[in-house]
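Researcher: We're teaching a course module on how sequence relates to structure. For the next exercise, students receive a sequence and then see the predicted structure as tokens, so they can try to spot secondary structure elements on their own. Here is the exercise chain.
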Amino acid sequence: MIRNNLALLMTQKRRRVNELANDTGISRNTITSTAQNKGKMIQLSTINKLCQSLEVDPTAFFEYVPFDFDYTFDEGDLVPDPDYDHGKPETYEASLFINVSENNNRIDSIELQGYTEFEGQYDGDTIMIGTDLHPSDTIQLKKLNSYLGKMSVSFISDIKKDIEEVVESALNENSNVKVHSDLLIDFEETKEQYFTKLKNRNSNH
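Model: And here is the predicted structure for the students to work with:
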């Protein structure tokens, strides 16, 4: 995977989008899209102008790791709970697979588990669905960290944004109304560790 560090560099150099656009002649939309790693391709002339304006070389502009991630998300069965009859939002099982590949060959797969839950109206006819995902066990957590340990904090943040887009897209495919995803994804503890901590926290109040 390869990501650009434009957002991080702009923060470090204290450069605003409109300032960078004025300095380079690159449109605000292009700079914003590039900083969000949304574009499929960046022209060499654009990279050249940005590097010159930010006074960095291309090795600082880009970050690379020698593997790729793709994702498969599935909303599963309804979790049984008698409190649904008393107004509690329905909760469904959820799982996400992070598939790891090298040279277009899958070399690993890491499972995250959790749930989805209705959180209310978001905007007009859009509903908010909360999704909570954690590595399913300590083996999955260890595997995940072996890859994340090779990435910067900003790279990992981009990975979480990618996953949020995949989750929201999958939820919209299975819904007859528009869905906005509110994603909580934790790469530091397993599903069991999280729920144990949550249970202990609730029992102390």
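Model: If you want an answer key for the exercise: The beta strands are 2-4, 62-64, 68-78, 91-102, 105-123, 126-135, 179-185. The radius of gyration is 20 Å.
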